[in-house]
Design goal:
567 residues, Immunoglobulin-like, 3 domains, 7-stranded mixed β-sheet, 7 helices, 34 strands, binds CU-O-CU linkage
């Protein structure tokens, strides 16, 4: 195995789209940033040189970082951020993982332009894929473009805890496409040139801050073969649905009549509350090579689902299961469960300071996003170091994530949706640094229950440092007696990001066998920034090989307390 080395220079620059120059923070002057291409088992070394005015960390989304939590890249959880004019070198291995992952800044909204693909190929080469060998592989990054200074948005959000901003456009590989124009001149779109009969592996990543996406290519089908760097039983569909944080690898065969076919990525929106104008779709083009093109007909457009048809996401994700293959044996699902957690996801109103404030006084109240009615408070010093050095004071700062919500009610009653924060909030929420401790090796079962409390969104829940078996998902309220019987304990998909359906639930299991302090959060940026987050602290095991090693010698220190961006 090799050492793959990159230098990431983080810088600010102006980019022009939609006739507007926007200040963005980027790696090596490009959006998306560089692709990290490696072979399973390689070591990766990334020198981050921070030339931007922001505090930065880079997270390697989906990389398991076994016994390597120090390199997970979460500010004030695993590390002090890399300050302006400072450097830090991340080092990690990609042993035991194959497929598509990605990297992104874990600093509020800055990840909209600070991200890129990680591609991990098998040791035995492309002919050892457990699916037909593709002729070409294409990173396919869906994102959103914000014609505004997102660092300023992040600062405002930190004060008001309210996310009242909308993306200006959707993108494929950084291109807006011809549905957008600047004074009548169409924006460039992503073009995929294909040859008849050839097979293309699209490595699809949703890096958007804001939306789940529907993806279709006119006249073509996808065969989904992997998700979150885990192989899945091949599943053929004309619609891919992908939430922020997820990756989907899909084969597309150029088997249509030679010509031009639009590829459309459309953000989906929860049906209720229907208060905002839908975000615009982006489109790229799949075009057959000219040698084989008889004429120059108009491009064919796909028929898209309704923008509000969010049940499509539920169907798509319910169809995923793990691949059974001689070279890729199914990972056994642990039968014994040590800890059961039931976690409700919703919004709420909390006091700006302290536990008691006047509910009627708007100035004292902030909108928060919660798990079991508690919203995450950013710690002021990195939790991992406190955990490692047993700095006891820090433990008092943490609030244990409870096993269940404080109250049982009809979680998905649509009449709870109306947003008039004061009217319908069922109970006070509060703000605390939520943590849950797990003994090394414990098997944890979690049911995430979406609630209608002031939200009608799905929730892509992402766990750092571990993959989760997705046992079942359903619409409505989870019913333990009935729904446990439906668990797939044979070949459930393994995911690092699970989509909790809009007004539904998902049940997962994972083995807490990676010592460290791991972030667990919704991958919608506004939910994350508003506190739909907790940390999972996995204790050391009995041996050196099951314990967290010492921090890197050149680890950044916290010169200033600000954990987002400087004011
Ligand atoms: Cu991609 Cu903590 O996230």
């Amino acid at each position: 195995s090799a050492i793959v080395e990159h230098t990431f220079v983080v810088n600010q620059m102006n980019m022009t789209h939609l006739c507007k120059e926007t200040l963005v923070t980027v790696v090596n002057g490009q959006v998306p940033g560089p692709t990290i291409e490696v072979t399973e088992g390689d070591s990766v070394t990334i020198h981050v040189v921070n030339k931007s005015p922001h505090n930065i960390t880079i997270h390697w989304h989906g990389v398991k970082q076994r016994r390597n939590c120090w390199n997970d890249g979460v500010p004030m959880v695993t590390q002090c951020p890399i300050q302006p004019d400072q450097n830090f070198t991340y080092r990690f291995s990609v042993a035991g993982q194959e497929g598509t992952l990605w990297w992104h800044a874990h600093v509020s909204c800055l990840r909209a332009t600070l991200h890129g693909a990680i591609i991990i190929r098998p040791r035995l080469g492309a002919s050892s894929y457990p699916f037909p060998k593709p002729d070409r592989e294409i990173p396919f990054i869906i994102g959103d473009w914000w014609a505004m200074d997102l660092a300023a948005v992040a600062r405002r959000m930190k004060q008001d805890n309210f996310f009242d901003y909308f993306p200006s456009a959707s993108t494929i590989n950084g291109k807006l496409g011809d549905l957008f124009n600047c004074s009548g001149v169409a924006e460039d779109g992503f073009v995929l040139d294909v040859e008849p009969g050839k097979t293309y592996l699209l490595r699809i990543i949703n890096t958007a801050l804001f939306s789940e996406y529907f993806l279709k290519i006119a006249g073509h089908k996808f065969t989904v073969v992997a998700s979150d760097a885990n192989y899945v039983r091949p599943y053929t569909t004309d619609l891919v649905v992908i939430a922020p944080g997820e990756t989907i690898d899909a084969l597309v065969v150029a088997d249509a009549a030679p010509g031009k076919y639009y590829m459309v990525a459309m953000p989906n929106q929860a049906p209720l509350p229907d208060t905002q104008t839908p975000e615009p779709s982006t489109r790229g083009m799949m075009q057959y090579s000219s040698s084989s093109r008889p004429g120059n007909g108009a491009p064919v457009a796909p028929v898209m689902p309704d923008q509000h048809d969010v049940v499509q996401s539920f169907y798509f994700h319910s169809n995923l299961s793990s691949l059974r293959h001689p070279r890729h044996p199914l990972a056994p699902v642990p039968k014994r469960v040590d800890e059961h957690l039931f976690i409700t996801l919703g919004l709420g109103i909390a006091c700006r300071r302290g536990l008691n404030c006047d509910r009627e006084d708007e100035k004292e109240n902030i909108l928060v996003a919660t798990m079991n009615n508690i919203s995450f408070l950013q710690p002021t010093a990195p939790l991992l170091a406190a955990h490692y050095y047993h700095v006891g004071a820090n433990k008092d700062e943490l609030q244990e994530l409870p096993d269940k919500p404080p109250k049982v009610f009809n979680f998905t009653d649509p009449s709870l949706i109306p947003i008039g924060p004061k009217e319908k909030a069922l109970e006070r929420t509060y703000v605390a640094t939520l943590a849950r401790w797990f003994r090394y090796g414990s098997v944890v079962e979690m049911v995430f229950q979406s609630t209608s409390i002031m939200q009608g969104d799905s929730n892509p829940m992402h766990l750092h440092g571990h993959d989760m078996f997705v046992l079942a998902q359903g619409l409505g309220n989870f019913d333990a007696a009935k729904d446990r019987a439906r668990y797939n304990l044979v070949d459930p998909p393994l995911k690092n990001t699970v989509v909790v359906p809009n007004l539904g639930w998902v049940a997962i299991r994972f083995v807490a066998d990676n010592p460290g302090v791991w972030y667990m959060h919704c991958h919608f940026e506004f939910h994350l920034s508003m506190g739909m987050t907790a940390v999972f602290i996995v204790e050391d095991g009995p041996t050196v090989n099951t314990s967290l090693p010492a921090p890197p010698v050149d680890f950044p220190s916290c010169g200033r307390k600000d954990n987002l961006v400087p004011d």
